[in-house]
Write a structure and sequence with these properties.
single chain, 5 helices, Tetracycline Repressor, domain 2
């Protein structure tokens, strides 16, 4: 294959997924609009949103890269079955996703408590919101990412072309939905 044919192959595989990612990003923006009402009730919430969404991409993008490499090398089969490599990668991503979510709550609260003129919501509230949202997004991100990469790979798509847009789309859509849900849940419980 020449350079031109490689370019068109990548473009053909990536464009539909990128269009879905665009739609997902717009949907996430609409969900953010619903979250803005909670900002007055939970000061510091809006500060956490971009960090939370960015870390979804970092944590689960790394998982997607590991899965794509494993598929290319034939170390991972594109199906859900017991596989130690896959299990370890998924477990590490799950723990990282939840751990970084809790850390976001703690760092946000600390930074806003130190900065003059800011009075954040309580540490417990911010950490609880991040914990719930982080746990729920971890489950959806892992299952969704694996399912879509495996399906794409079986259909002949290069998983490297799918990982970025899939992680971005799932992270934006479900990250915002679960943030909104966790704000509601924490409001009911606490």
């Amino acid at each position: 294959m020449g350079v031109r044919s490689d370019f068109w192959e990548i473009y053909r595989e990536s464009l539909p997924v990128l269009l879905v990612a665009l739609s997902g990003g717009l949907f996430a923006g609409l969900v953010l609009e619903g979250l803005v009402e909670s900002v007055a009730e939970y000061p510091g919430l809006l500060v956490m949103v971009p960090v939370f969404l960015a870390t979804r991409g970092n944590v689960y993008g790394a998982l997607g890269g590991r899965i794509a490499s494993g598929l290319h090398q034939g170390l991972i089969d594109p199906r859900f079955r017991r596989d130690e490599r896959l299990f370890n990668a998924v477990l590490a991503s799950f723990v990282n996703g939840i751990g970084i979510s809790i850390l976001i709550g703690v760092i946000t609260w600390t930074a806003l408590a130190i900065l003059p003129g800011w009075t954040p919501a309580s540490l417990v509230v911010l950490v609880a919101i991040m914990f719930v949202a982080g746990t729920l997004t971890a489950v959806v991100m892992i299952v969704g990412l694996l399912a879509l990469i495996f399906a794409g790979f079986r259909l002949g798509y290069d998983p490297d072309n799918l990982v970025g847009p899939i992680v971005t789309t799932l992270g934006d859509i479900f990250g915002m939905l679960f943030l909104l849900f966790s704000v509601w849940l924490v409001g009911v419980i606490l």
